[in-house]
Amino acid sequence: MDFFDRFAIPNPSPAIYASMVAIGLTMIAILAGLTYFKKWGYLWREWLTTVDHKRIGIMYLLSALLMLFRGGVDAIMMRAQLAVPENKLLDAQHYNEIFTTHGIVMIIFMAMPFIMALMNFVVPLQIGARDVAFPRLNALSFWLFFMGAMLFNISFVIGGSPDAGWTSYFPLAGTEFSESVGSNYYMIAIQIAGIGSLMTGINFITTILKMRAPGMTLMKMPMFTWASLVTNAIIVFAFPVLTVLLAMGTMDRLFGTHFFTTTNGGMDMLWANFFWVWGHPEVYILILPAFGIYSEVISTFARRNLYGYKSMVGSMVIISLLSFLVWTHHFFTMGQGALTNSIFSITTMAIAVPTGVKLFNWLFTLWKGKIEVTTPMLYALLFIPTFTIGGVTGVMLGMSAADYQYHNTMFLVAHFHMVIIPGVVFAMLAGLTFYWPKMFGFMLNERIGKWAAWIISMSTLMAFIPMFFSGLDGQARRMYTYSESTGFGPWNMVSFIGAAGLAVGFALIVYNIYYSTRYASRNIAADPWDARSLEWATHTPVPAYNFAILPQVKSSEALWDAKKHGHELFPGEYEKIHMPNNSGVPFIMSCIFFGWGFSFVFSLWIPLILTTIGIFVCMGLRSFEKDHGHYISVDEIEETENNLRGA
Amino acid sequence: MRELFPMKQVMGFVFSLLLTIVALAVYFLDMSITIGMTLLLVTAFIQAAVQLVVFMHAGETKDRGAIYTNIYYGIFIALVTVFGTLLCMIWGYL
Amino acid sequence: MKWALLTLLFTIAAVLTGCEPLMVLDPKGPQAATQAKDIMLSIGIMSVIVLAVFSILVIMLIKYRASKQSKDYEPPHIEGSTLVETICVGIPVLIVIFLSIVSVQSNYKVEAKPTGYGDKEPLIIYASSSNWKWHFSYPEENIETVNYLYIPTDRPIEFKLYSYGPITSFWIPQLGGQKYAMSDMVNTLHLAADVPGEFMGRNANFSGKGFAENTFNVKAMSETEFDKWVKEVKKTAKPLTEDKFAELLKPGHLGQSTYTGTHLEFLPPPEGENGGHNHGSSHSTKMEKDGNESENSSESQQHHH
Amino acid sequence: MKIDNSLPLEYSTEENSNKILGFWIFLGAEIMLFATLFSAYFTLVDRTGNGPSGAEIFEITPVLIETFLLLTSSFTIGLGIHAMRLGNKKAMMAFFSVTLLLGLGFLGVEIYEFVHYVHIGAGLQTSAFTAILLTTLGTHGAHVTFGLFWGLFIILQVKKRGLNPETANKSFIFSLYWHFLDVVWIFIFSFVYLKGMM
């Protein structure tokens, strides 16, 4: 029995058992449904083995929405627990697990795939390419992320969730103070997903640098592509740090090394240091694609070209460099002295300058425009004021002497939620609404969409503004309860109402998807928003090869040129198109990775060795495989194009 | 046979051996930590540059801009990470 | 819909004025005052920026809405202007430079002995945390307390922070900002109380299950009162033995208690360059994992206020 | 697939040239990977706990052998690529084989070194210093081991399929990888061993 004990949950509660049953039933329902409707073959051929960037993008999107739900439920539970003083809804242990998983799920398994979804779907279309540079690697990236996410998510029903915070500072996360396998899940699930992200980074840099349509020089790339390029550069240089860090953490937990322990020379500060060497650039990995989306949306619906294109690009490049120079501001209070703090305080505040440039450029894009407030535009317009509040409080936090008072308090929590929610979540929702017609062939309902946008943004203010005050009043973050005499009660109640409002807003988005799927017109043009860049120049739905003829580009707004200035986008004739073959290997290899991770978490050494060999066998097979892709003939292209044009 | 051993690569190899021997001086000779570290830094970075240019052909295609940008960016951030970490973990407390 | 936002702001402002002053903005010591001043200054400057952004946004939205324009209006192509962009870079740069100067000055202020106390020697107090308690050792007075802290008002205080276990953060908001206490090094935090009073102190860094209740009470009093208290403790409190301290270190919550002698004698804090790296291996004070929860030590006199 | 004959074989298709650039970017990531290990090493180097310090356990002879083997292998694989560009399949395979043999020799010495360290009480669990030392060396060693298999697979493919755009591309990318490992070793040699023994 000893062997099975390790899989039991250390801190069970009825809620966990209920979710266990719910997960089991859902799994059975999905499997039964697939069998009953005979969809296994379809699933395998069209999705599990696909290397098409558009389908991979859609799979990222679905995973992100799923994880948004998971992270959102965590958030609601936390706010409910804190809504009144001395609440007994959750106990300390349960609360600790929830805020830990909330942080990781939202950042690594929600925001990351959401930006990956949009990058995957949009970037190749926006640069006029047929796919990404390494389509199969792209599939592997997705499946590694997915398996990492699944591995992380089973933690709360098998073996127990991590409970040392999303930052998992040692020695708290070490075996001495965190005995359950929870922190093993943290180390290994994030590691697997992180490898996937790193490969995405390499893939997209190569794609953007090498596969642009003829005529599209670097300075003629649409802004979202620029944002993606810079983001992926940050990914490539930041994620290896995480890889090493997690490996060291894993060794401390499983192999008895002393990197971060309190004995034999271990240094707990080093974990915090490397965590933020990765963690701070990670913030910009999330925010820059969001900036790209806003640039596209604002310029489309102001019906004007983006103001200050060059300074927009320049500011992003500067942000990408500065993002690596500021990490110490996450631990100003660690004692390193006034000089070090001063240096990092200045670099931190310096980031406000390029960010401010972007903000003003968006505002000036509205100038002399013809502003049409659609749902994506509404998100962008609501983003500007809310993000400004988040941004300026960031400058305040950057002042290290004052940071001694903000650090580890709800003020900090308020700041980063006011940055990440308007910055990333609004942008992703804007991008979702904006690109939905291209992805699925119908528009989301505008009326419901706008309601959702208003509810979400107002609820965001309501949920997080009070935290600025409770933080300044001495409420530390991550406290599972507080006494009535502290006076934090009213602030937290308002926060809870805001959080509930956010839930309503997200429910409305889900309803919108349902409603629009049922009732929206399928008869939409390729360019329903009257947009400006190349992704809108191809048909809806987008054919597998994206563009029958590679577009000729003259500016960053190629489609606009074609529409307004009669520029010929697609000169020439059809030629046969080379496309990559589907492959099951990325999926299978990632499944083995899942087994590898699971064995690692529970220290099952024999399965671990077997799965490790399995992974290398997959790589070896790939090395010897002859896969030259296939060609789509001119006849087939003609047929597809005629059908799409007729539709 | 001769064409299999191009001058450039042979010289590169000889040069890298020389640099190794120079670096070895810090082991065999008695010198201060400052001089020793300077010597090691200089030889190591020249050595890396030799590999990059002579053996790895970093600059031979039209992607050289991207390749060099990538490497310089990487080295810059690597140095920031190494020295920043030392500043925050050790030097800042002295 | 703009009114919705305004209403919200007004509500918040109304709630604000109705409340007692926020702890951090109600400083009772020179360090906290420096920090509160910086905070208010930055809030002021930042409000101007927020207002500027809001007004530009509102103006743009009012003037350039599609519904306000003729159907055939074609927005012009504008590349951007060097002048405008110089201003957009210049003003933030000036603000950042100004804030940097303020910030750097304050950094050196909060990292030094508080000013305004003449040449009085600071009172050194070792504050160490263990799951989930605070131990305060007064080497000069040779006494030790658990979970409460008495300090004199007319002397600067120098806290020496370290931890038996996870990283914690020592924070008394009304006296000054926090600093980490870690297991392998000693951090120094300079504080001082200008006026007598009772303040909240806590560990601000998440440290596991008992984190929420990891608080302590701070009482600042005049030097004569402080000396009286020290004398009284020396008369009534039991000595802190090695066994007793090992018992105190067990994970759990404790009430307040007082001892004569300090644990510094038999269990010196980590020392040496960068905190001395052998701490923990040379002294075997590993905490037992499953201590008694909320064990209450009532061996010496309990201090309630 | 279009083949551009003006370029060396390994760059001749669009896919090939993408792969080479992609690999360079991967090397950028590798720079950061090792930079992180070096940062950790420099931070923990003096934190020896109850274990030995670097000066107490490092020996110059095996290190010099390792350095010489790896430097030479970097040279021979460079010659291999040169031979490949001349279209000399036989010479190329010979140089690649020599490279792998030298790599194997390096690995042998490194394994001896590891066994020695553990034997004299400098194991993975001894102290923060020994842990980061063995992790840094081990990460490099694991890269070399991986490279040995990779190189072997490539030699087999070149032997069976001859020099074509695909095999040439693989060989070239492998050579980049191998040179990079040499560069990393130079830094380990200088800043771990020589600095430790200085």
TrEMBL record, chain A:
Enzyme class: oxidoreductase
Pfam families: COX1 (PF00115)
Catalysed reaction equations from the record: 2 a quinol + O2 = 2 a quinone + 2 H2O
Pathway as given in its UniProt record: Energy metabolism; oxidative phosphorylation
Cofactor note: Heme A3.
GO-annotated biological processes: aerobic respiration; electron transport coupled proton transport; respiratory electron transport chain
InterPro entries: Cyt_c_oxase-like_su1_dom, Cyt_c_oxase-like_su1_sf, Cyt_C_Oxase_1, Cyt_c_Oxase_su1_BS, QoxB
Necessary cofactors: ferriheme a; Cu cation
EC number of this enzyme: 1.10.3.-
Signal peptide extent: none
UniProt subcellular location: Cell membrane
Keyword annotations: Cell membrane, Copper, Electron transport, Heme, Hydrogen ion transport, Ion transport, Iron, Membrane, Metal-binding, Oxidoreductase, Respiratory chain, Transmembrane, Transmembrane helix, Transport
Membrane topology: Multi-pass membrane protein
Main location: membrane
Source taxon at top rank: Bacteria
Function: Catalyzes quinol oxidation with the concomitant reduction of oxygen to water.
Family classification: Belongs to the heme-copper respiratory oxidase family.
Name of the protein described by the UniProt record: Quinol oxidase subunit 1
Organism of origin: Neobacillus novalis
Automatic annotation (TrEMBL), chain B:
Top-level class of the enzyme under EC nomenclature: oxidoreductase
Domain of life of the organism encoding this protein: Bacteria
Organism: Neobacillus novalis
InterPro entries cross-referenced by the UniProt entry: Cyt_c_oxidase_su4_prok, Cytochrome_c_oxidase_bac_sub4, QoxD
Topology class, membrane: Multi-pass membrane protein
Name of the protein this chain belongs to: Quinol oxidase subunit 4
Transmembrane found in the keyword field: yes
Catalytic activity, as annotated: 2 a quinol + O2 = 2 a quinone + 2 H2O
One Pfam family hit: COX4_pro
One GO biological process term: electron transport coupled proton transport
The family this protein is said to belong to: Belongs to the cytochrome c oxidase bacterial subunit 4 family.
GO CC aspect terms: cytochrome o ubiquinol oxidase complex; plasma membrane
EC number: 1.10.3.-
Entry function: Catalyzes quinol oxidation with the concomitant reduction of oxygen to water.
Primary localisation category: membrane
GO MF, one annotated term: proton transmembrane transporter activity
Alphabetic keyword roster: Cell membrane, Membrane, Oxidoreductase, Transmembrane, Transmembrane helix
UniProtKB/TrEMBL annotation, chain C:
Recorded name of the encoding gene: qoxA
Stored SUPFAM superfamilies: Cupredoxins, Cytochrome c oxidase subunit II-like, transmembrane region
Primary role: Catalyzes quinol oxidation with the concomitant reduction of oxygen to water. Subunit II transfers the electrons from a quinol to the binuclear center of the catalytic subunit I.
Known EC number: 1.10.3.-
A GO molecular-function annotation: oxidoreductase activity, acting on diphenols and related substances as donors, oxygen as acceptor
Family annotation (NCBIfam families): QOXA
Gene3D superfamilies: 1.10.287.90, Cupredoxins - blue copper proteins (2.60.40.420)
Keyword annotations from UniProtKB, A to Z: Cell membrane, Electron transport, Membrane, Oxidoreductase, Respiratory chain, Signal, Transmembrane, Transmembrane helix, Transport
Organism per entry: Neobacillus novalis
CDD domains noted in UniProt: CuRO_UO_II
Source species, domain of life: Bacteria
Family statement drawn from the similarity comment of this UniProt entry: Belongs to the cytochrome c oxidase subunit 2 family.
Membrane topology: Multi-pass membrane protein
Domain named Cytochrome oxidase subunit II transmembrane region profile: residues: 16-114
One GO cellular component term noted in the UniProt record for this chain: plasma membrane
Biased composition (Low complexity): 294-305
Region (Disordered): 259-305
Protein name according to UniProt: Quinol oxidase subunit 2
Cytochrome oxidase subunit II copper A binding domain: residues covered: 120-232
Catalysed reactions, semicolon-separated: 2 a quinol + O2 = 2 a quinone + 2 H2O
Primary localization: membrane
InterPro entries attached to this UniProt entry: CcO_II, CcO_II-like_C, Cupredoxin, CuRO_UO_II, Cyt_c_oxidase_su2_TM_dom, Cyt_c_oxidase_su2_TM_sf, Cyt_o_ubiquinol_oxidase_su2, QoxA
Residues spanning the membrane: 43-62, 83-104
Subcellular location: Cell membrane
From TrEMBL, chain D:
Record's bilayer topology term: Multi-pass membrane protein
Gene Ontology annotations of biological process type: aerobic electron transport chain; ATP synthesis coupled electron transport
UniProt EC number: 1.10.3.-
Transmembrane segments: 21-43, 63-81, 93-112, 132-156, 176-194
SUPFAM superfamilies hit by this protein: Cytochrome c oxidase subunit III-like
Highest taxon above the source species: Bacteria
Key words of the record: Cell membrane, Membrane, Oxidoreductase, Transmembrane, Transmembrane helix
One function term, GO molecular function aspect: oxidoreductase activity
Sequence ranges assigned to domain Heme-copper oxidase subunit III family profile in this UniProt record: 1-197
Function: Catalyzes quinol oxidation with the concomitant reduction of oxygen to water.
Family assignment from sequence similarity: Belongs to the cytochrome c oxidase subunit 3 family.
Protein name: Quinol oxidase subunit 3
